[in-house]
């Protein structure tokens, strides 16, 4: 399935409309349908490691039963987010700052601020920060 930038922009508000006030950590074991909510970044926890910062925003199920997760990651210059892997759910990377090199099924592309990468189900993928500054990007996981 191939999504255009316009289709992703239309999809994002619909995804956000399913949000809830529960924190992502507390919602993992909870199969409740997400309720509408506002997420203020100053109130969200930041998990730090040597190569990245991770801010969980929301996690749960939509009214249709689709699992959804949203988080923001800040990745250090030259750092690798994870080695090549695949999973059944779809994944969307939306870059805010810096440059990510996204590898999908062996093909590498540079993803710059304002750009989006879509990873289909079970597509092998990896990403790393190729810029000299921290890369900040949102990750949407579906399924």
Question: Could you explain how this protein is built, in words?
Answer:
- The protein is mainly beta and 143 residues long.
- It has 2 helices and 10 strands, in the order ααββββββββββ.
- The chain has helices at 5-16, 24-27, and strands spanning 47-48, 52-61, 67-75, 80-85, 90-97, 100-104, 107-111, 116-119, 125-129, 135-142.
- The strands form 2 sheets. It has a 6-stranded antiparallel beta sheet with strand order 1-2-3-10-5-8. A 4-stranded antiparallel beta sheet has the order 4-9-6-7, with no helix packed on it.
- A hairpin with a 3-residue loop joins strand 1 (47-48) and strand 2 (52-61).
- The longest helix has 12 residues, at 5-16.
- The two termini are 15 Å apart.
What descriptors fit this protein?
43% strand; mainly beta
Please describe the topology of this protein.
Elements: H1 5-16, H2 24-27, E1 47-48, E2 52-61, E3 67-75, E4 80-85, E5 90-97, E6 100-104, E7 107-111, E8 116-119, E9 125-129, E10 135-142
Antiparallel strand pairs: 1-2, 2-3, 3-10, 4-9, 5-8, 5-10, 6-7, 6-9
- Strand tally, please? 10
Strand content: 35-45%
Percent range for helical residues? 10-25%
- Which quaternary structure do these chains form? single chain
Distance between the termini: 15 Å
**How would you sum up the major sheet?**
6 strands, antiparallel
Could you state the order of secondary-structure elements as H and E?
HHEEEEEEEEEE
**Radius of gyration based on Cα positions:** 15 Å
Mean pLDDT level: 84
The helix/strand class is mainly beta
Instruction: Please state the overall shape, judged from the principal axes of the Cα atoms.
Output: globular
| Total helical elements | 2
Low-confidence stretches: 13-28
Strand order of the largest sheet: 1-2-3-10-5-8
């Amino acid at each position: 399935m191939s999504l255009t930038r316009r289709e992703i922009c239309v999809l994002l508000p619909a995804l956000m409309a399913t949000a809830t006030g529960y924190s992502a950590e507390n919602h993992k074991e909870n199969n409740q349908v997400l309720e509408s909510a506002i997420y203020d970044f100053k109130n969200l926890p930041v998990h730090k490691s040597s190569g990245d910062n991770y801010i969980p925003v929301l996690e749960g199920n939509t009214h249709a039963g689709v699992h959804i997760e949203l988080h923001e990651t800040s990745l250090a210059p030259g750092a690798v987010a994870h080695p090549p892997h695949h999973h059944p759910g779809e994944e969307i990377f939306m870059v805010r700052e810096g440059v990510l090199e996204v590898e999908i099924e062996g093909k590498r592309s540079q993803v710059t601020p304002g750009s989006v990468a879509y990873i289909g189900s079970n597509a092998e993928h990896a990403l790393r920060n190729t810029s000299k500054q921290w890369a900040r990007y949102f990750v949407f996981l579906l399924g």
